[in-house]
């Protein structure tokens, strides 16, 4: 097992724009901007938004709009999607939206693409209508999107303006081996959703690396892992704060979703053994603790996976505690 220097690993933020109890989406967006501005100062490389629909606890239903808001309020941090669920959108519209963003904020926009609907099947039907099987066209839609961005498309009857000729990095997002094969075949960077789907993570990144074909975009494999991070000054405080995240995932598993809840002293009073096992399985890559504990956990993770970048997502109820968590995480990585 090769040891990698933690301080050499780029680190980024995934924001689901989770709405805390007692807050509104407007509050959440203001908190996102404050976090992005702090992340920029702390040396975070990217700030990405996920795409989710029909979830009352998650306000990231229009990532392209949020990307513009965050990019406009920051100076240098890369801002992007983690991701745009491409089967929900026509490739031309995505090319135009991200072409607009890249024109406004040149050299700062990332486009992460996923194939899942980002919601339940009924809502997916409301979004996609007769295109309910659009996910089967995901590889072809990625190809169409790349064509819209290419200079070679200038002679086509359908063109993306703005968008055509712009260098907008495309990432393939995934939680399974299918996405790994696609990212490898197209020579694109690969971001894995290990923050909620840890099961196929090791298998997928191995497959990606072994099958990677160099491209004009990337000469060697590049893996980014998204992980859950709850950092605090002490292990005990971090464990306490992490109960909000565990309640959030319990809502996902039981279908009883609610706004992000305050932390509790004892999760055993809330969940049963089956719910606990299910949540812990989903949170296979959860890093909780004070600086020293986090350092040990992260060093082991990076050595085992050899990831090229980590992207932290943090469901923490209190905004100040969340800001503190990202600060502790960044300072720990930079000093390791």
UniProtKB/TrEMBL annotation:
- Which CDD domains does the annotation name? Flavin_utilizing_monoxygenases
Which terms in the GO cellular component ontology are assigned? cytosol
Q: What is this protein called?
A: Luciferase-like monooxygenase
Give the record's family classification.
To bacterial alkanal monooxygenase alpha and beta chains.
Species of origin reads: Mucilaginibacter paludis DSM 18603
Query: Could you tell me one molecular function GO term of this UniProt entry?
Result: oxidoreductase activity, acting on paired donors, with incorporation or reduction of molecular oxygen
Residue ranges of the Luciferase-like domain? 11-302
Q: What is the lineage of its organism?
A: Bacteria, Pseudomonadati, Bacteroidota, Sphingobacteriia, Sphingobacteriales
Q: Which superkingdom is the protein from?
A: Bacteria
